[in-house]
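Supplementary Methods S3. Complex input for the glutamine-bound model.
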Amino acid sequence: MDINTCHRAKLTIAYYTYWHLCTMLLKEWVDLQIPLLAPVYGIREARNIIKVWLEDKHGIRNLQQPTTQAVSTGWQLDMAKLLQFEPVQYITQKAFFFDHWLYVDKSVLIPRPETEELVQLAIQHFNSSSSPHILDIGTGSGCIAISLALALPRAKVSAIDISFGALEVAQLNADNLGASIHLMEMDFLDERLWQQLPSFDLIISNPPYIALQEAAQMEKNVIDHEPHLALFPKYIDPLIFYRKLAQFGKNHLSPGGAIMAEINSAFGNETAAIFKAEAYQATSIIKDMHGKDRIVKVI
Ligand code: GLN
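Predicted complex, serialized as structure tokens:
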């Protein structure tokens, strides 16, 4: 075949591939992609992920329309990431939390439904006209602090994190959602820094709480892609944050105030014991929607 014939043949193939794509409905295109993801995710989850990707990345909900070149080429790149267990939220850079869309990237955890339950509990603790001072420790994407600031417009919400990258994400989310929160870079485990902080009516946190020995059982999407700084406490003790919270609360909880923190379900009793050993009025462990110990509430 001479060069010209070869070139013409290539053009013809490209034209027919493009033509075929344009005449293919998205619904059919999705059906063709599912088997590619299914070996990793199973058919149901594969379909869900593709739908989330289409909706959150391309704003497409209606699958009864022709497939576009943008969808098809974008998918080739992102499918490779999904096959490496990258969570779809990092690919679309969007996560839905407590009625709001948040920007997320790999410097923050993807907010979980269990943490929505923590936010709900905190909101119920106050009435909408109260003006509590709130501190969120290890704010990450800002999901807790921002949701509280929006639900309790009179609240004064401060949030700290050790990670500058996380603080940038939290600030972006606060700006996007019109939430007023005060962000500070701080290593909460360093007690010498606590004097910079006043007292609060609510101290809330979803700290890193995964024990190192749990790493082997963790899903690849979490262990390979989410920030270890937000999952594993810096020291070997998985309860270090709760020990520090119990100490911090002694001098930084206003009268009538509360501490609420997400916990590792494997350490419900141990976490409660830390607060019970201090002079707090009452400590309770609250279960999540799966019936697992998930929140410690201290008053
Ligand atoms: N809930 C997260 C997980 O299961 C962990 C969050 C945390 O360490 N605070 O992966």
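The pocket of glutamine is lined by residues 109, 112, 206-210, 222, 231, 262 (CB under 6 Å). The first strand starts at residue 94 and ends at 97.
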